[in-house]
Amino acid sequence: MNEGKILSKQQALFIASIGHDLRSPLNGILGTNELLLSTVLTSEQREYLKMQKRSSEMMLYYVENLLNYIKIERGQFLIEKAPIDLASILTSVFDSFFFQAKANNNHLHLLIDPQIPKTLIGDKVKITQIVSNILGNAVKFTSDGDVNLSLSLIRHTKKKVYVKIEVADTGKGMTVDEVKDVFEPFVQGEDSAKNYGGFGLGLYTAKALVTKLHGKIEVTSQPSKGTTFLVELPFAIPGELEAHEESLQTLIANELIPDEIYQCPYKILYADDSIDNHLLIRAFLKDTPLLIDSVYDGKQALESLKNNTYDLLLFDIQMPEMNGVEAIRAIREDCKHVKTPAIAFTANSFKEQIQEYYAAGFTSYICKPVKRQSLKSVIYRTLSYAENMRDK
After folding, report:
1. Which fold has domain 3-74?
2. Which fold has domain 82-236?
3. In angstroms, rounded to a whole number, what is the distance separating the alpha carbons of residues 151 and 163?
4. Coil, strand, or helix at residue 308?
5. What pLDDT is recorded for position 254?
6. What is the pTM of this model?
């Protein structure tokens, strides 16, 4: 094997390991922050928690960009196809930059075309990353100016909707040479790294994701006048997914959850070696009728399954004694539990790792750090999918 390729693989594994080690504690920080913000607080306490949330999310943003770089270089992206509200996604991203824009004395403007369908099929995470990276770049390099985010309809066919996302700013702009290199990794202007921070991966990641989603991205810029990014993306219409696109994760993401399922006291076996995660997950689910049994590694999970029946398994992947993948493989060998749905709780999101989870016997997965509503959604969609499969 070429020595350069060995080094590249070692670097990729190193960054992936760092990503995992940062994502796990961020799960506790952001999760606890979400719980605290839902309690009765003084205005001063709420502002402090919001500041903590913004700082933690910025740290997560940099971690995700590093991991995305490795995924791009290794072709490790998985694209999810699920119902999304595109206007809501852009509005959420827009709102998240309010304080940063205010700090730079900028005015943020959002324009949503009312012709955009309420529901489309797409990847919420990837769209969020694309818009966040481009809008974040515009806000960062603009002071005392304007930053505009717009979403408009290009055309609407029987099976597809084509949209344009535009981010225009009145910031410092770029030279012709800078525009040529703007989508290259780790490339920044002479004063960018010193004055603005970052790794120079945001726009590289945005272009790679746009390309992966079968879209295109363009940029125009003039020094001292500003920059405009144009992104064109296609989206499927609900009910128009091709047969080959019906992956297990897509099926679960598109699962319609009947109202009565929220009232059922489903029994869940949760295996995780982190006491903090146990406290967090229980707090996230305390307003549901779900019943949770806690164990702390794969071997304990197997012991618990000998004498109990569960409706759902939620296993952390990295555990001592026996990890989540080893545990689910052992469980699937037992006919008694072969159809019990299982969710992998992981800080790893590389394509090859997700495929390993499915091959081992997991039904779905959720990545750290997890939000309360995301956790509930994955749990109930997985339970609903399992119920429907049993009825067939």
Report:
1. Helix Hairpins (1.10.287)
2. Heat Shock Protein 90 (3.30.565)
3. 7
4. coil
5. 61
6. 0.71
